[in-house]
From TrEMBL, chain A:
<dbReference type="Pfam" id="PF02738">
    <property type="entry name" value="MoCoBD_1"/>
</dbReference>
<feature type="domain" description="Aldehyde oxidase/xanthine dehydrogenase a/b hammerhead">
    <location>
        <begin position="19"/>
        <end position="123"/>
    </location>
</feature>
<protein>
    <submittedName>
        <fullName>Xanthine dehydrogenase family protein molybdopterin-binding subunit</fullName>
    </submittedName>
</protein>
<dbReference type="InterPro" id="IPR000674">
    <property type="entry name" value="Ald_Oxase/Xan_DH_a/b"/>
</dbReference>
<feature type="compositionally biased region" description="Basic and acidic residues">
    <location>
        <begin position="9"/>
        <end position="18"/>
    </location>
</feature>
<feature type="region of interest" description="Disordered">
    <location>
        <begin position="139"/>
        <end position="159"/>
    </location>
</feature>
<feature type="region of interest" description="Disordered">
    <location>
        <begin position="1"/>
        <end position="22"/>
    </location>
</feature>
<dbReference type="InterPro" id="IPR037165">
    <property type="entry name" value="AldOxase/xan_DH_Mopterin-bd_sf"/>
</dbReference>
<dbReference type="Pfam" id="PF20256">
    <property type="entry name" value="MoCoBD_2"/>
</dbReference>
Automatic annotation (TrEMBL), chain B:
<dbReference type="Pfam" id="PF01799">
    <property type="entry name" value="Fer2_2"/>
</dbReference>
<dbReference type="InterPro" id="IPR052914">
    <property type="entry name" value="Aldehyde_Oxdr_Iron-Sulfur"/>
</dbReference>
<keyword id="KW-0479">Metal-binding</keyword>
<protein>
    <submittedName>
        <fullName>2Fe-2S iron-sulfur cluster-binding protein</fullName>
    </submittedName>
</protein>
<keyword id="KW-0560">Oxidoreductase</keyword>
<keyword id="KW-0408">Iron</keyword>
<dbReference type="InterPro" id="IPR002888">
    <property type="entry name" value="2Fe-2S-bd"/>
</dbReference>
<dbReference type="Pfam" id="PF00111">
    <property type="entry name" value="Fer2"/>
</dbReference>
<dbReference type="InterPro" id="IPR012675">
    <property type="entry name" value="Beta-grasp_dom_sf"/>
</dbReference>
Length: 699, 176
């Protein structure tokens, strides 16, 4: 029986969310719960020379002030950003140097303002340039990707190509800014540590806490019942959970650490800026002969994270001569980390913009250019694709969008002060999957209970896993209950890398499939406690595949550029995806559209700046860092192909959480070029840049 | 605590029920709801009036509850997402519309979006214009809420998951 998977089932936790009863990490009112407020470093590099807590401790209601002078000593974490209040070193501005614990939020805040920290400041260096003397080639880029790959003679082939594009693109630092700031509530009870945290995966949080506090894992419970978004920034434990556990131990009280919004850019990761140089060489027919994508980015002094933005160039197009390189400089900046479609989003912005430029050079339709460069196998690895329907996405998108008959000439369509244009870009995201466990139980009342430590960060994990379980059991969806979001459940990997549903779903499928077989063999009434089955996909889900596995998509945008104000408005945004089997049409559409919305922000409004003088992100809050709002969003459509791929997992699904952002910025940028004839190569496309571009063109 | 001068007795009606509390003068309505009354439906996204997640209704008008000192609201009537359906078991039509449209993902901005939308409906009915209202429209007459009006009026409520199109559809569903 297959009835549930694919259906647009309603979110299981929907009523709680619209009713305001869904509880997030700050909302567990344990008796005696105290509140904590962090104190951030005011220098970008140096040492703390003194922490004067007298005034803070005099604030009524303040219980304790923790700093490196008195905080509990922790074991050394694998992630250096979690070694909070352990030593006087300040690796970047915004690093936490103290924590005030108080009876109330107001007292904690006032206490934090009253802590006097003195520093021995050193000269800092926070500005990335492609020629920065500290730039080096790392051993690896993020995600375990090789930093450098080279095939053939890219320089020679580029030099002798009939058509050439040699361009530089820039993507600024970007902030995840989930709506729920990073928050944890911790308490100690009989030597056990109990934590509610806002995380994409509680299993990893528990592992880290066990190490830091030298506790066996079975004495720690971490739950994340509801999580107010993450977008990568909650993919690893953040300082809030360490601080909460520390403060709870010091005060003997439950403690909530809810990070103030303005702290997030400094301590919760960011998408590092990327400086791209793209060289595309092609013959007269538009076939790529050379593809060179070189990326320079920054990381912090304490942690090497290298945004792997040249990686999609290893997947996308056939070119016999190719080179992809990542370079990085370690600066006195906050530690970068994952943000939705890490690597792919900035990399594909640059690559797909350069492809548009090449199409212009060749006088060729940009879709046709991509068709001509469709590879037979994954270019870098030589592996066959498990499935690849990029061209079908482009064709289907072209049909739905009305691309045919488009006048390719830039800067020729006017409507009063508006210039109009359309653009297209391809998207890709790798198929990721990790081992997971799950348990399924048949109960006497005819219902089933499926348990796995998945995390629902808004993707609808509860719902889709119940659908997978129901089909494997061959029962109606409403008879399957699901429990997620706690380390008390069978262990499971994080919600990240667009891998959650594939990983958890595989284990749920296997557990339910096994239970169905047990039930088929069972005679007579079920035992009192029901009938159980468990699954562990270790060794199966993580087995090396002989195939290159990626989702693909095509993005189309229509823009109007105001020649008076420089404002870009996106009138239409359309995405078509080939992402395997879509398991829940309703929640999948929301994810695709959400990704495209974030892509629109990346294209037009989102951008952060490292202030050279203070070593701080200038746009650190939601008043200065402009995420898209209702009025920015016109028509957004997401469609998908019925893609069958038996080489993925039992559901046949690819991840869908990230690909929506991937092609959107280039599609919009290409549309702005089509509208104006101006090629802007630095995001975001804000009115000042657009107006300057228009003025330059007129001149 | 010995600092009674920093606290005042304040009475608020919240979701129809009166509450008299001794309130720290620094306490904003959002923290009073969440910490003193345990009504955590209103969310703290920024604490600075930048995101709208804390939106509730005070005397029928939508406000960023993180920007209002609770002590200044003595005698006010506050409605939070928990109180939208009144005493009934049935959710408010907007809550139902949000469910049916899948107008949310992580759910953190959702109570604010819903309360804000309730406020929008009342403002439009009362003839309050917005930035996109036709300047030739008669003053004081109800404003018709088309898509542009809804988007403009809800733009103080951020949604990082990008549920905006579905939210606008959900609001359209309940326009009389």
């Amino acid at each position: 029986m297959t009835g549930s998977v694919g259906a647009p089932a309603e979110r299981r936790e929907g009523r709680e969310k619209v009713g305001g009863t869904a509880r997030y990490a700050a909302e567990f009112h344990d008796p005696g719960r105290a509140q904590a407020w962090p104190v951030s470093a005011r220098v970008a590099r140096g040492r703390v020379t003194g922490v004067d807590t007298a005034d803070a401790l005099a604030v009524p209601g303040v219980l304790a002030v923790l700093s490196h002078e008195n905080a509990p000593r922790l074991a050394e974490p694998d992630d250096p950003t979690l070694a909070v209040l352990q030593n006087p070193r300040v690796p970047h501005r915004g690093w936490f140097v103290a924590l005030v614990v108080a009876e109330t939020l107001e007292a904690a805040r006032a206490g934090a303002a009253a802590v006097r920290v003195t520093y021995d400041a050193e000269a800092h260096d926070v500005v990335l340039t492609a020629s920065h003397p500290g730039v080096y080639v790392p051993e690896e880029a993020s995600g375990g990707q090789p930093a450098v790959r080279e095939q053939g003679d890219p320089d020679g082939a580029f030099g002798s190509s009939a058509a050439r594009v040699d361009v530089a693109y820039r993507v600024p630092p970007l902030h995840n800014h989930p709506m729920e700031p990073h928050t944890s509530t911790a308490r100690w009870e009989d030597g056990r540590l109990l934590v509610h945290t806002s995380s994409q995966g509680t299993g990893a949080v528990r592992v880290v806490l066990a190490k830091l506090f030298d506790l066996p894992e079975e004495r720690i419970v971490v739950t994340a019942e509801h999580v107010g978004g993450g977008f990568g920034s909650k993919g690893t434990p953040r300082p809030d959970v360490v601080l909460a556990a520390m403060a709870a131990r010091e005060t003997g009280r439950p403690v909530t650490v809810a990070l103030p919004r303005r702290c997030l850019p400094a301590v919760a990761g960011h998408r590092a800026p990327t400086l791209h140089r793209l060289r595309l060489g092609a013959d007269e027919d538009g076939r790529l002969t050379a593809l060179v994508h070189e990326v320079t980015t920054h990381t912090s002094r304490i942690k090497e994270y290298v945004e792997h933005a040249a990686v999609p160039a290893r997947v996308m197009y056939a070119a016999p001569h190719r080179r992809t390189v990542h370079r990085v400089a370690a600066l006195d900046v906050p530690s970068p980390s994952w943000m939705r479609a890490p690597g792919q989003a900035p990399g594909m912005y640059a690559l797909e913009s350069a492809m548009d430029e090449l199409a212009g050079e060749l006088g060729m339709d940009p879709i046709e250019l991509r068709v001509r460069n469709e590879p037979d196998v994954e270019p870098d690895s030589g592996k066959p694709f498990s499935s690849r329907h990029l061209i079908d996405c482009l064709r289907e998108g072209s049909r739905r969008f009305g691309w045919d008959g488009r006048d390719p000439r830039p800067g020729t369509r006017r409507d009063g002060p508006l210039l109009l244009g359309t653009g297209v870009a391809a998207a890709t995201y790798p198929v990721m999957v990790s081992p997971s466990t799950a348990a399924a139980r048949a109960l006497r009342d005819g219902t089933f209970l499926v348990r796995t430590n998945a995390t629902d960060i808004g993707t609808g994990a509860r719902t889709v896993l119940a659908q997978v379980g129901a089909d494997a059991l061959g029962v109606p969806l409403e008879r399957v209950r699901i429990e997620v979001g706690s380390t008390e459940l069978p262990s499971a990997p994080l919600a990240g890398d667009s891998s959650g549903t594939a990983s958890w779903g595989w284990a749920v499928h296997d557990a339910c499939d096994r239970l169905a077989r047990r039930l088929a063999e069972h005679t007579g009434p079920l035992p009192e406690e029901g009938l159980d089955a468990r699954a562990d996909t270790k060794g199966v889900a993580d087995a090396e595949s002989d195939f290159a596995r990626h989702a693909f998509g095509a993005h189309f945008a229509e823009v109007a550029v105001d020649t008076v104000t420089g404002e870009v408005r996106v009138g239409r945004l359309l995405g078509v995806y080939a992402a395997g089997r879509i398991l829940n049409a309703r929640t999948a559409r929301s994810q695709f559209v959400g990704g495209m919305t974030m892509g629109l922000g990346m294209a037009l409004t989102e951008g952060s700046t490292m202030d050279a003088a203070f070593g701080d992100f200038t746009e650190s809050d939601l008043a200065s860092y402009h995420v898209p709002v209702h009025a920015d969003i016109a028509e957004i459509e997401a469609h998908w192909l019925d893609e069958e791929d038996s080489r993925l997992n039992p559901m046949g699904s690819k991840g869908i959480g990230e690909i929506g952002i991937v092609g959107t910025p280039a599609a919009i940028g290409n549309a702005v070029h089509h509208a104006t004839g101006v090629r802007l190569r630095e995001l975001p496309l804000t009115p000042d840049r657009v107006l300057s571009g228009l003025l330059d063109r007129r001149a | 605590m010995g600092n009674h001068q920093h606290h005042s007795r304040t009475t608020l009606r919240v979701n129809g029920k009166p509450h008299t509390l001794t309130v720290d003068h620094r306490r904003v309505l959002l923290d009073l709801l969440r910490e003193d009354l345990g009504l955590t439906g209103a969310k703290k996204g920024c604490d600075h009036g930048q995101c709208g997640a804390c939106t509730v209704l005070v005397d029928g008008r939508r406000v960023n509850s993180c920007l209002l000192f609770a002590v200044a609201l003595d005698g006010c009537d506050v409605t939070t997402v928990e109180g939208l359906s009144g005493d009934g078991e049935e959710p408010h039509p907007l809550q139902t519309a949000f469910l049916e449209r899948d107008a949310f993902q992580c759910g953190y901005c959702t109570p604010g979006q819903i309360c804000s939308a309730v406020g929008v409906l009342a403002e439009a009915a009362a003839g309050h214009p917005s930035h996109v209202t036709d300047t030739a429209a008669p003053s004081g007459e109800p404003v018709e809420l088309d898509r542009a009006e809804i988007k403009e009026r809800l733009s103080g409520n951020l949604c990082r998951c990008g549920a905006y199109p579905r939210i606008a559809e959900a609001v359209e569903d309940v326009i009389p």
